[in-house]
Write a structure and sequence with these properties.
GO terms for molecular function: protein serine/threonine kinase activity. With 129 residues, the chain is an alpha+beta fold. The protein contains three helices and five strands; from the N terminus they run βααββαββ. Strands 1-2-3-5-4 form a five-stranded antiparallel sheet, covered by helices on one side.
């Protein structure tokens, strides 16, 4: 990974709860490689888990697409799926509240029938022991 460059990792998984561990593991690995604290790594894993869980029951074609953009110190994750009839997540739901509490920012946007949930986190300086 070069400084100033944005690296991109793409992943497609079946819209099945058994596969949520895959993007959760990927984001944990990417965050660890980019100097996120252990707490921040756990928060990102849970946030990605929530984003996937929100989209799972609505994924019309049975696929979740995940894009991880790494631009140190930032990590941006987009989880998307084709959804029926302009569906959007309930931003008053417990899942959305958890998601937004764990990351720097979170947003949902639908374009041409594809809903994308985007979460952003920034690594902070780690405290020395």
């Amino acid at each position: 990974m070069s400084m100033g460059r944005v690296d991109e990792v793409r992943l497609s998984i079946p819209a099945d709860g058994a596969y949520i561990a895959v993007p959760r593991s990927v984001v944990g690995n990417l965050a660890a490689r980019n100097d996120f604290t252990l707490d921040a790594i756990d928060d990102l894993r849970i946030a990605v888990d929530e984003a996937c869980a929100l989209l799972l029951p609505e994924a019309a074609d049975g696929v979740l697409d995940c894009v991880f953009l790494i631009e140190p110190p930032k990590l941006l994750v987009r989880v998307s799926a084709i959804v029926p009839n302009g569906w959007t997540p309930d931003t008053d739901s417990f899942g959305w509240t958890v998601l937004t509490a764990l990351v720097e920012s979170a947003a949902a946007e639908t374009i041409d029938g594809r809903l994308t949930i985007t979460v952003t986190a920034t690594a902070t300086a780690t405290e020395s022991l």
